[in-house]
Amino acid sequence: MTHIKSKSGISVRDLHLSFGSTKVLTGVNLEIEPGEFFAFLGPSGSGKSTLLRAIAGFGPQPQGQILVGDRNLAGLPPWERNVGMVFQSYALWPHMSVRKNVAFGLVEKKVPTRLIDEKVEAALSLVGLLDYAERMPSQLSGGQQQRVALARTIVTKPDVLLLDEPLSNLDASLRVQMRRELLALQRKLGLTTIFVTHDQEEANTTADRMAVLDQGVVQQVGSPQTLYDHPENLFVAGFLGTANILAGELVRSNGSTRLMLETGEQLPIDNEATGTGSLVLRPQNISLSENSEASELNGVVSHREFLGAQVRYLVDVANTQIVVDQSHAVDQPILDIGFRVGLVINSKSAVFLPRGQKQHAA
Amino acid sequence: MDTTTQDAGGKPGIKRSLTDRIFPSLSGTALAAIFIATLLFGFLILPVAKVIYVAFLDPNSGALTLQNFGDFFSSSLFRESFFNSFYVSAMSVVLASVFALPLAYITSRFEFSGAMLIQSLGFIPLIMPPFVGAIAMQLLFGRNGSINLLLAQYGINIPFMEGLNGVILVQSVHYFPFILINLSTSLRNIDRSMEESAQNLGAHGLRLFRRVVFPLAAPGYLAGASLVFIKVFDDLGTPLLLNVNNMLAPQAYLRISSIGISDPMGYVISFILVAFSVFSLWASFLLMRGKDYATTQKGGGGLSRRKLSTRENIGAYGIVIAILLLVLSPHIALGLLAFGTIWSYSPLPDGYTLENFNTMFGQSGQYIKNTLIYAGAAAFLDIVLATAIAYIVLRTKIVGRKWLDYMATAALAVPGVVLGIGYLRTFNDFEVPFVGKPLASWWVIIVVALMIRRLPYALRACTAALQQVSQSLEEAAENLGATRSRTIRKVVIPLMSGGILAGFVTSFATAAVELSATIMLVSSDSDAPLAYGIYLFMQTPSGRGAGAALGILAVVIVAAGTMLAQCIIDRERKARTGEH
């Protein structure tokens, strides 16, 4: 029970899916490794849940291939796929006790009755709910229902595990705890898992790799760190964390590169590229100096937010507003609104996205 | 919570109302609660208690005894009636299920273009009082009715309407929408993920239906089925019009009306009717407890629907149209009877005419006028009481307020015959001042009976309406200086108006065609309402046409009322969702 050790990865090849005439997924290609914890991240309506449901066999029939291991799932009904899915609402049947809920899939698989009890109890103790076997779902808290839903799925030894926004119905404090437990359980079972979420923190903290989706198109695939540090397009840059996105033209002269902003200012940039495009600049990679005269770029503080570990300033530089995060130390004074500051850019950490490498559109 | 419950005594700095000064310890709402409790006690609890008490009373000595029950069960007629009532109710549930199950299943599981047809036509039987269709059904399905006349060419005669069969057919045709409505709602409230998670774990087809879908829908089915059982068990009008007297309710009526109000058998039967109603309601409550299976999530909803192939679609339409034709046959037959000249020993009337309507309007002006007065007054009183009860239950902390709700709702478990008998027994000796008549034979008692009988409907509408009024709206008014009573008048009631109006219309429409309580209480033809008029017309073959015409009028009243109530509710809902 505790060692499923999935040998199956998941391959999605050139998948297209439409609801009637509305295209929901376009040309999706993904290779998910066996045992990987993989996240689908995207805003609502990006197609991430639709993609997950397509793997489980729900929703309209897609074009293209879905392989689990080397088994092609195309055309198989949901009940023949052996793909475990935990629903956003948990979908525990209210007329069955916890035990019966968990036993359901085993009964369908015609597992002998004697073994069913054993397996159900093993699964329930794995999620720490053995004492709750005789309760009805309505007598459980949200977190407990979630665990029962998990136990109900993994007890059937699915090839892969699909989690559809599993934490969205829990309150904030429980969410953090649950995502740790979820990851620990996944590691223990070694079960290839896809986790759908719209919350980047959830994806960042759990996933080995993730796919960012928007408008039914995979925008970028990679580890959380890769996607944050090296976004391939403006959507990924803007969706993960906060970013200043400055449009302009990179011009080389006298051995140095400057970004000529569309609004007229110039920024010295340590970058080999040239041409028009956008510069992605994280707020923490800009620092403020009180001596505005010494800086090449300066502006006026127009807004500030004290966030505890850091202070977030909005600085008006001519017609552009730039977000700057300054880490905060005890008793360090906070700059007043209206204060004139210089901006120092750590341009090594800036990413330049040449025009034409915009978002992948459907 | 606390801020809205400042009770009694008045607030400092605000002028005290008159009632506060007279009864310093009682608020207006508490006085209203006491008044309503008294009213319900006097006109519901007391008469029913009296009926039950008399059932245990020796008619000669006045001592408590079980002898009446011994007499009841030693009479073969009563034993037969008891068995018949039980049999007819159970079979009506079975037959009603046969009509309702396919309709509910087809509309909720498949993408079926006829779903709208079912939604609208499937509920039409409810808007016709069952006894109205009873005679018309004889002409279609009776021994010499249209169907059997057509079948006679092949030497076949099906006894659709013979004795108890007729009652079962008429009742199940009339009451099956209760099962359809409840079952459809249950099916609609099952979230798609309930089914998908079962499929994900390997279940499909019949196993999926048996293990997940049916258990989740079962509470709705049981609710509908128990309602049908009680309604049929208690109904007086249909067996009476079909001349099936060997059932409990008709026996009670006949004993009281022919032998008199001192005959104990009417009371014994009443006791049995009440006991069965209470038992059925209690049993269905026990079965339903903790089984609120509405699982739909926000956004999602309903089971996934499968497309039908062309052949399946034709089959589905065939089933649906056959069922709908059958359940709409009372209306068809009633129409033929009302617009036909002579209809006897022939599949269809000899000719068509409007003469029946002329006769009807010529002779039934009094009935129609009485009905409008009775049903109007009863419905008006109902919404006043229901609004007050809803407010007291939901918004005050008055001790025992829940009991007001229970008492008012208990009227559902009291058959009309029983209430009628209770009123006769309780108020026969009560002389109304200045009228010179006992209260039991004064026309106002009919209004009171209708009011009590329809109060649960109005109460449900008003409670639902009040639940939708956010308490913060009242708190805002009070915060701005409005007193409790002004808040109720200026904020609560205007916001409830849609629900109150819907409650009025429902109570009015159903009170207009009530027969079982009124038939006991009508003391002269000049006091009779429309439903009683239909009953009188239908007693003679020559009066049938006019009776049917009056029946059409009744259907039109109920239909218009139902549509109006639905429109009001829809408009309210739209207005409400439009705000967000």
Biggest chain contact: A-B, 28 and 23 residues
Please give the order of strands in the largest beta sheet of chain A. 6-7-8-3-9-10
**Top-tier CATH class of the largest domain in chain A:** Alpha Beta
Tell me the overall shape of chain A. Answer: elongated
Shape of chain B from CA axes? globular
The name of the CATH architecture of the largest domain in chain A is 3-Layer(aba) Sandwich
Radius of gyration of chain A from CA coordinates? 25 Å
Number of domain units of chain A: 2
> Which CATH class of the domain at 27-49 and 356-580 in chain B is shown?
Mainly Alpha
How large is the count of helical segments of chain B? 23
CATH superfamily of the largest domain in chain A, by name, is P-loop containing nucleotide triphosphate hydrolases
C-alpha termini separation of chain A: 42 Å
**Strands of the largest sheet of chain B, in order across it?**
1-2
At the fourth CATH level, what is the homologous superfamily of the domain at 27-49 and 356-580 in chain B? MetI-like
Global Rg of chain B: 26 Å
What name does the CATH topology of the largest domain in chain A carry? Rossmann fold
Assembly of the depicted chains:
heterodimer
For the termini of chain B, the CA-CA separation is 25 Å
Sheet with most strands of chain B: 2 strands, parallel
Reading the helices and strands of chain B in chain order gives: HHHHEHHHHHHHHHEHHHHEEHHHHHH
Question: Low-confidence stretches of chain B at least 5 residues in length (pLDDT < 50)?
Answer: 1-14
Family (chain A): Belongs to the ABC transporter superfamily.
GO molecular function, one term (chain A): ATP binding
Protein name (chain A): ABC transporter ATP-binding protein
Keywords (chain A): ATP-binding, Nucleotide-binding, Transport
